[in-house]
Amino acid sequence: MMKTKTVFLKGLAAIIATGTILATPLAAEEVTLRGVSCFPIGAPPGVPFENLVTEINEKGKGIVQIDLLGGAPAIGSPFQVVERMAQGAYDIAGCPEAFFGNIIPEAPALRLQEKTFAELRENGAIDYFQEISNKKNVQFVGRHHDDGAFNLFLAEGKAIDKADLTGLNLRVSPVYTAFFKALGASVQRSSMPEVYTLMESGAVDGYGWSVRGISPSWYPVTKYRVEPGVYRASIHTVANMTKWNALSDEARAVINDVVIGWENKMEGTSDYAKQLDAEMLKVFEENGIETITLEGEEADKWVSMARETAWDEFIEQNPETGPKLKELFTEAQ
């Protein structure tokens, strides 16, 4: 009888031990996300995302990694990157809003922001934008880089002295198309790699681009940079929402910490941002790119035209969400 009882107790202990092992959560396996960029790998506007991926991979060892598969246009049109990501072709991407307005029409609000991203997170602007993005299976993670304001860059012999672009043919993206047209320019769109050829051949007289993101290969065909700058050339980390929700809390925390860390570091008034601007101004000077600064009424016209045309176009295209986004993203005027 005693022997039977002993065997029973040993068996019970084994069952309890086994149950304890089974109930103990297994360590989560490292997850690898398929990452892509809306810019060519190595191009100035794409490098911040590449650096972001490197930092996430360093801090996410054993938790989450990003396999950077490539960048547009090698992987396809930059205007389709986020759309394909939302459909499941990729898991995470680094893109400016200009390249995902086709899937999220409200995306331009991100370039028209007049408040810091910290303020936008606090006042509910990012939460509201997140609601809109999620409906398209896109998770807005954050703004990992700010390439500064957009400037107009012009070829030699194409200098302007007022807010009038009549007679100029300019290369554009959706960012400033309405603005340049409102000031009298004719416009044409092209991919980033085509800008040099268009400028060198004289097919276009200038192009709009972010002050910190201009390609060094364009310096020889660029003579002037027009101030004041307008909008913000923000580059964002976005993810496939389904994939994002399937990540562990720990994996999401790694990505969020890195992205929002850069979001805060890149605020326009930070010492780091000022340093980047100073470095770019030095580069322009060394490469013979002169600055044209519009002043007084002409500067006011330039800035107000940029703001008005952008928001008028935005609200016309987004009549239901536009007014609220303008209220959340801009300073009252």
TrEMBL record:
Subcellular location: Periplasm
Domain of life, source organism: Bacteria
InterPro entries, sorted: DctP_fam, TRAP_DctP_sf
Keywords: Periplasm, Signal
Family matches, as Pfam families: DctP (PF03480)
Residues in the signal sequence: 1-23
UniProt xrefs under NCBIfam families: TRAP_S1
Protein name in UniProt: TRAP transporter substrate-binding protein DctP
Source taxonomy: Bacteria, Pseudomonadati, Pseudomonadota, Alphaproteobacteria, Rhodobacterales
